């Protein structure tokens, strides 16, 4: 293959890294110019460090934050970048310090954490002291970049989390790499590491919803619907879902929601009071919208807990009248407040036992259809697109 020649999907899929020759060449999907589409080209990877793992990627999820990340790069004059951060694969090689993984292990990638700070050692790695540096620095833990242009040697940036996965092979830090049971279908497991974990973990690990409790969830995207599945798995009593998309609301009912409210057509506060006159035990917002958050707050029982997962550029304006004198707890939840090495295998086992059918959220795409997958993610026709690599 010479420079400029496009790489076919078959070539991509059949590609095997030549470990014996120690060439560390891989094929990666890159966007080099803002507004252009994905191209696939050979890149050169750096050598594996002692605490890193070389992974053959099997599938990569498209994250709803993906294109927002593209937009954030508008002002970056050096736009060469690698994409996607949700994915699963098979370990090909481990660095000398890696003890918990070996060649052939099935793994899912998740957020980075240092494993040493107070929050990491107390079981809250999602709130790691160096979270920003490890997850948003566009490089690997050690600050270097692990893919470079084969001909020019120019380094590729990562898309915001580490590592980026749209490649036949990637290098990941061992703390990002979670071993999962080998008997689960690896091609659908990638989203467990980010958006599914965010929703399911919020319900199971942070709010700790238990049998018979009531919860209202606003936002029926992949994270909100994962929260619905988790609430069903926890045997919650009332599970109400708020969204402006009636199709998504119907789908939430199929997944086990007991009530839905169309925020476009209905008065959310009034409907929530009708559904649960004594108030809800828990609230969870994915929308980041002040009006929706206030409606949920007004529908909670005294001493209830509400989680915030949404992001917004607008300031959050809380209606203090609905909030004060009721002892409500409002908390922002990151990464499902999970310990991924425990929680991701737990979710996989729940899936294998039919208790967490998150595969219903996933649409598989062939790699050649990557630009369609992104479009479908943006316009909402696919809840969670996954690219088969
Ligand atoms: Zn994401
Ligand atoms: Zn830490």
TrEMBL record:
Whether Oxidoreductase counts among this entry's keywords is: yes
List UniProt keywords, sorted A-Z: Metal-binding, Oxidoreductase, Zinc
Question: Which intervals hold domain Alcohol dehydrogenase-like C-terminal?
Answer: 224-342
* GO molecular function ontology, one term from the record: oxidoreductase activity
Q: Which domain of life is it from?
A: Bacteria
Pfam families linked to this entry: ADH_N, ADH_zinc_N
Residues annotated as domain Alcohol dehydrogenase-like N-terminal: 50-181
List the cofactors: Zn(2+)
PANTHER family for the chain: GROES-LIKE ZINC-BINDING ALCOHOL DEHYDROGENASE FAMILY PROTEIN (PTHR43350:SF2), NAD-DEPENDENT ALCOHOL DEHYDROGENASE (PTHR43350)
UniProt lists the family membership as follows: Belongs to the zinc-containing alcohol dehydrogenase family.
Q: What name does this protein carry?
A: NAD(P)-dependent alcohol dehydrogenase
Q: Which organism is it from?
A: Dyadobacter luteus
């Amino acid at each position: 293959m010479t420079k400029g020649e496009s790489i076919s999907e078959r070539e991509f899929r059949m590609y095997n890294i030549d470990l014996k020759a120690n060439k560390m060449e891989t094929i990666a999907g890159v966007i080099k110019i803002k507004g252009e589409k994905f191209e696939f080209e050979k890149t050169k990877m750096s050598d594996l460090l002692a605490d890193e793992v070389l992974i053959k990627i099997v599938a990569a999820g498209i994250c709803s934050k993906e294109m927002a990340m593209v937009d954030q790069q508008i002002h970056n004059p050096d736009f060469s970048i690698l994409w996607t951060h949700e994915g699963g694969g098979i370990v090909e090689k481990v660095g000398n310090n890696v003890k918990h993984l070996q060649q052939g292990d099935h793994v899912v990638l998740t957020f980075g954490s240092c494993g040493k700070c107070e929050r990491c050692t107390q079981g809250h790695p999602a709130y790691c002291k160096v979270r920003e540096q490890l997850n948003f620095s566009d490089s690997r833990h050690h600050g270097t970049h692990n893919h470079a242009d084969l001909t020019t040697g120019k380094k590729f940036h990562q898309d915001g989390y580490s590592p980026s996965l749209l490649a036949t092979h990637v290098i990941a830090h061992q703390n990002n790499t979670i071993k999962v049971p080998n008997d689960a279908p690896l091609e659908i497991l990638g989203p467990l590491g980010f958006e599914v974990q965010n929703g399911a973990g919020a319900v199971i690990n942070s709010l700790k919803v238990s049998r018979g409790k009531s919860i209202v969830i606003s936002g029926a995207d992949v994270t909100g619907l994962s929260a619905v599945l988790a609430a069903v798995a926890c045997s919650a009593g009332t599970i109400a879902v708020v969204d402006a998309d009636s199709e998504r609301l119907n789908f939430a009912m199929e997944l086990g929601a007991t009530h839905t409210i169309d925020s476009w057509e209905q008065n959310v506060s009034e409907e929530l009071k009708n559904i649960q006159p004594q108030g809800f035990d828990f609230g969870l917002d994915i929308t980041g919208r002040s009006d929706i958050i206030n409606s949920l707050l007004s529908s909670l029982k005294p001493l209830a807990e509400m989680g915030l997962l949404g992001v917004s550029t607008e300031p959050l304006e809380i209606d203090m009248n609905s909030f004060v004198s009721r002892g409500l707890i409002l908390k922002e939840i990151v990464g499902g407040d999970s310990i991924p090495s425990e929680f991701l295998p737990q979710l996989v086992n729940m899936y294998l036992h039919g208790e967490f059918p998150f595969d219903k959220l996933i649409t598989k795409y062939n790699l050649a259809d990557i630009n369609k997958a992104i479009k479908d993610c943006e316009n909402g026709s696919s809840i969670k697109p996954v690219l088969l690599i």
